[in-house]
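Entry:
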Amino acid sequence: MTIKRALFNYISVSRYSSTSLLKTSDKLKQTRIFSSQDLVNYSKVSFDANPLHLDPEYARNAGYKDVLVPGMLVASFFPRIIATHFTLRFRLPVYVEEEVIGEVEATSIRGSKSKYIAKFITRCFNNTGVLVLDGEAMAVLPTLCPTQP
């Protein structure tokens, strides 16, 4: 079974729209059930070994009925939903253990009293500096001060 087929075995996609063009109030949705193996895999990639996400006994002793899905794993829905419904341009393949550099460039920023709406050009480059993926994104930002990792 291919990875793509395996993913779509437990991710369903639905789009609520009366037309083929996205309009205000349209909803883009996906459903997914996270497995224990998903949490283990996420922990390995993210280095998040919080026992609330991996140890049922620890989670119960902390007052939860079972282990918790990490919030960032749940939040990973948003780029997936957007990417499923909007076009990213995959220019070249990226190979396992190949360094990838992600770049987000602000192209416009509008401010209001408590937030900013920014439009970005998104790009990924391989380890030789060749463009492998590009697209566009918009984000609502609480501040224009980027945080450093």
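The chain has a mean pLDDT of 79.
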